[in-house]
Amino acid sequence: MEILRYVFLVFHLFGFAALMGGVFFQLRAKDPVAGSYMLTSAVVQLVTGAGLIWTRTTLDLGVVDAKMGVKSIAAAAVVAVAWK
Description:
Keywords: Membrane, Transmembrane, Transmembrane helix. This is Integral membrane protein. The chain crosses the membrane at residues 6-25, 37-54. This protein has helices at 2-28, 36-58, 65-83. It has 84 residues and is mainly alpha-helical. The chain is elongated, with a radius of gyration of 14 Å. It starts with a helix and ends with a helix.
């Protein structure tokens, strides 16, 4: 289960890197538009974040529910903005 948590963490970081790469790409573009890569990386962030919460709960590691709720809402907002 610990290995699964690290796999979720690596993919979560890849999703964040893809989101930031898309943001920097859009800053340089004359006509910024959210591409499919932004939506894909936002969904990866949401799914892997939920997976991280699940693995921490399963392993009886500390999880602050309010903090995770705010992060989940923020991730859902990013998905909604990327969805257009």
